Amino acid sequence: MPPPTSNIRNFCIIAHIDHGKSTLADQFLLKTGTISERDIKAQTLDSMDLERERGITIRMHPVTIYHEHNGQQYELNLIDTPGHVDFNYEVSRSLAACEGAILLVDAFQGVQAQTVANAFLAMEANLRLIPTLNKIDLPHARPEYVIAEMEQAVFTEAADVIKVSAKAGLGIENALTAVIERVPAPNGDPTAPLKALIYNSHFDTYKGVVVYCRMIDGELKLGQKVKLMRTGREYAVTEIGQFRPDMTKCESLAAGQVGYFTANIKNIQDVNIGDTVTDALHPATEPLPGYKEPKPMVYSGLYPVNNNEFEALREALAKLKLNDSSFVYAPEVSDGLGFGFRCGFLGMLHREIIQQRLERDSELDLVQTAPNVTYEIEKTNGEQIQVHGPQDVPDGGGIKEFREPIVKISFLIPAGNVGDLMTMCHERRGTFVRTEYLSQQRVILVFEMPLAEVIYDLYDKLKSVTHGYGTMDYEVIGYRPAELVRLDILVHHQRVDALSVIVHRSTAEKRGRAVLKKLREEIDRHLFEVALQAAIGSRVVARETIAAMKKNVTAKCYGGDISRKRKLWAKQAEGKKRMKAIGQVAVPQEAFLAVLESGD
Amino acid sequence: MNRTTNTEPPSPFREPPWREPRTAYLHIPFCAHHCGYCDFAVSAGQDHLVELYLEALTLELTTLGQPRPVETRFIGGGTPTYLTPPQLERLLQAITHWLPLIEDTGEFSIESTPESLNPEKVAVLAQYGVNRVSLGVQSFQARHLNTLDRQHDPSQIAPAVAAVRQQIPAFSFDLIFGTPGQTLWDWEADLTAALQYAPAHISTYGLTYEKGTPLWKSRQRGQLVALDEDAELAMYEHTMNRLEAAGFEHYEISNFARPGQRSRHNERYWANEAYYGFGVGAARYIDGCRELNVRDTKLYIRRVLAGESPTFQSEELEPRDRAWETIATQLRRCDGITRSRFFLQTGFSLDTLIAAPLPQLIALGLLTDDGSTVRLSRRGRCVADGVIEELLSHQ
Questions:
Q1: Where are chain A's structural domains?
Q2: Among partner residues B236, B270, B386, which is closest to A527 by beta-carbon distance?
Q3: Which of A549, B79, B83, B210 is a plausible cystine mate for B39, CB 3.0–4.6 Å?
Q4: 3.30.70.240, 3.40.1050.10, 3.40.50.300, 3.40.50.410: which CATH number matches A376-481?
Q5: Tens digits of per-residue pLDDT, A255-292?
Q6: What does pTM read for this prediction?
Q7: ipTM of the complex model
Q8: In this complex, which of A549, A553, A569 lies closest to B381 when CB atoms are compared?
Q9: Among A22-26, A214-218, A578-582, B140-144, which stretch is predicted with the lowest mean pLDDT?
């Protein structure tokens, strides 16, 4: 029997990486007897290896727990949230399924940039926040200081702060009580026509698509004919259940509850995240607002090191796409790297995770080219085009406006590093927006900056400028015109398409010089002088020269040397044949890699 | 009708020279000292093995089954003249029996060093018909000899040359350039010193850092700095100028001869023709099959005396590979590759093999082509390996 709506609480935990979100979730499961000490894995909610390894949560794993409070049984649905900026859109998805959020902050490290960003997202979604201080038992914890920061940054009342130690199991009961007492019950109508929000899904080989839903109104029953409002498709429900934490079947789901259903849906593409599920016979009149579709903002090429693994890569990408609709890809051909795919990601972490997952699941050896953002071009003829890579930039003139994505980026850093950070942001074409002191020691700086500058090792630079103490968070706020150009690389006067890049005009020369230097190191000397040039259109902005071979001759070639020499010459010649011929110049794959492969 | 007239001696050879050897190499590994740059099969401080080795070498010669006449013979090393006069006699007797020189004009060379040679040994060589001595002088300057780890003293060169000259018709100098610390003027001084002895032939070798040698290790450890490419190039170019002006013919990358004084033995290698090889580490090329003997002296002796073959590597090349190899070796000669001869020897038309890269290499001024013969230009000789690799990459 489903509990009455008034006894349901749907909530999530917002926290910075390493502030103890997973540990706290585990404690909730333990304290409520949802799982036993023996069953607990290190971090139950982070079930993907990769996530456990990295200590972060990427995908949402809901879990339903039961807890008795003041003699009443409550159903608590904990909806996990990802903790990284790339997955911001997933955070909003989680938030839309909840009425409250635990804002978890490390009692030593204090508020971080992402904590602030996600807390504001939660406030905008009208969630009730439960400020919670973790790791209060640590000797170096400084609760008063951190609480003062929370007051300053996210308008917390000191009196409302719950203090816990997830690791030691302290204060867990208080936190559960706070969830029950502070988070409002869902306010859906159990008697209205079925209306449920699809907030996630995954593909199961045996059951088809497993749809994660948050019930708003009405009831979902086994065998019920349902309709997905966006596509209009209808399905018969074959299984209903909740995550406790494993998928556990039940007969029905009532308004306010969180769970899943299956309905023989074969293709994950048919289920749109944010769509509304309704009854096919008695449909709701209006769908739920849903979500903004996440758009890939970072693109890069993905190539198999061995060209004959192209088909294997295609299959691996298709498999990956099954559980990650935010990832897009399309085949492309590169002069230097052969057949591969142009892939779009939500951000740099997303990109890294995809590559690792591919290499792990498919044992493919992959080359990933340096990332670029999605640009927009307005042609003189009025046509608007999306540019995912240098190859999309039209030759010659015809460009009226070249636009790039701009982000609003906030840094939370030690006050002593403000000067260095300012310099760094100005070098990256950032414009200062505002500054806000959380305390005398810590400050929030907000800039607007091209996304292209953010994905180019900004995070590493931030860590080095702040000695590891700085954190950052950003969101795309729109597109702005900029002095952008396609920088071409010419080897012996012939353009090498694979090596072109889109850069800001002011940095073109520097970038060109860097690329040419790498090429010069990797291309062997030839029998003639080889010119390397970087050019914008027909204007050369940088040049390097590989001098001709001057002396290269075997001194002794007598009876015993002939075999050895023949093998050596044949090997050299064979190596040369494997290289990519740009005109008369043999360019080794290493040269392409040195230029194209990203440094991370 | 038989066209052979009685005035021509009947040829003892049934097959063309690229199948049936007309030349033989014999290796003597012994040396007083193993020099730092040398990676030949060498045994220093193993004098007790000499007699056994000569026994084994003689036994290997008997595998010929019957005496095989040759046009040239070459005894290399090591230092063949490190042997004592009686040991030399024993060696030369065996060679004379198994590999008789076909005619009076036959070439018989031996490698030697200034410090290992004396009139007594020269007399033995002359007695057995050695008519060419290749003297490993390397440099006339003590400083560079020291860098090269050579044992002789510049003052030993004159007596050695004098001894050779008295009894043997021709001698050649081996010189090394590009020694660390050497200047162009040092090298010029070496060439001048060499020319004062009026040798018939001079070989000039750019110093090579063979992997694993003490010299190579010193460079790896940064204990010595190799000359830069410009300096080496200047020395090589100066060599060509200087020796050609002195009347020498630059007939192979590293070899210069007065007219009529080329090493006919070595020319067989560069023509990619057949040769016999005996002794430790020796290579042979017979009927399209390349073989290599083991490089360890004790192992060589053990195998041969046990009646086993000393060969440890053997490969039979496909006709096409043989043709490519012929391109690579013949291109080292100033005579280059002559189309008609190449076709006769390999069965391939030169142009079907190198038509694609040829025009560019000619345009770059590295090859010349007069319609019948393709040759390295003067500049092409400096980058011969690059040219050969370019040709081979179009296989």
A1: 5-182, 195-279, 298-370, 376-481, 485-597
A2: B386
A3: B210
A4: 3.30.70.240
A5: 999 999 999 998 877 888 888 999 999 999 888 887 66
A6: 0.69
A7: 0.89
A8: A553
A9: A578-582
